[in-house]
Amino acid sequence: MEVKRRTIFAAGIAALGVTMSGQAISCSITASREPSRFSDRACQRVIREFVRMLNEAPSMDINAVETWLEQNSISLDSDLLWSGSQQTDAATFLRTYRVSDGKLDPKPIRLTEIELVRQRANLASYAFTLRRYSHHAADPEGCNGLFVHDEYWGEEEAAYIAAFKNNQITNLREFPEWFAGDRSV
């Protein structure tokens, strides 16, 4: 009787060991998916998609914009998220980018240049320039009484730099050093 009990106990331990080893294998930490190979075409497509989103976001629900940001894992530099003296979130930034002085730009934002700055393995940096046709409120006082102007619509450019990993934007920040709009060089 004692032998049978030991045999059953040993068989139970062995079965538990097999089950536990199976669980250990299925729950073990292993390397995630392999890094994607760098693709200039894919990175440029992502930037174009980002510009498309800047154009469409003002008419979208805030939740849809947040979902798009999460799906694309895009992080915006904190300096981009300051509007005057208030900090905003990434979804609000996207929804209000085409709004100036409370008015929606009448023309879509255009991507005017895009350039690969650096690429190593599956990491890359791109500089790009956006042109928008935005509203400028009247400024009857000007800066110290200078540069007084009436209300007008006009083109302006802004440069950005995007960091990529696995052909996806991981971070976006302003890049004023790019001398957006300076075509004299």
Rg for CA atoms: 27 Å
**What overall geometry do the principal axes of the alpha carbons give?**
globular
| CATH hierarchy class name of the largest domain | Alpha Beta
| Helix and strand pattern | HHHEEHEEEEEE
Low-confidence stretches: 18-28
Q: Can you tell me about this structure?
A:
It contains four helices and eight strands. The longest helix is centred in the first third of the chain and has 26 residues. With 185 residues, it is of the alpha+beta class. The strands form three sheets. It has a four-stranded antiparallel sheet. Strands 1-2 form a two-stranded antiparallel ribbon. A two-stranded antiparallel sheet has the order 3-4. The termini are far apart. The chain has two domains: 30 residues; 143 residues, Nuclear Transport Factor 2, Chain: A. The relative contact order is 0.14. Helix 3 packs across helix 4. About 6% of the residues have low confidence.
Task: Give a nutshell description of this structure.
With 185 residues, the protein is α+β, with helices and mostly antiparallel strands. The protein contains 4 helices and 8 strands; from the N terminus they run H-H-H-E-E-H-E-E-E-E-E-E.
Keywords:
about 180 residues; alpha+beta; Nuclear Transport Factor 2, Chain: A; 2 domains; four-stranded antiparallel sheet; two-stranded antiparallel ribbon; 4 helices; 8 strands; globular
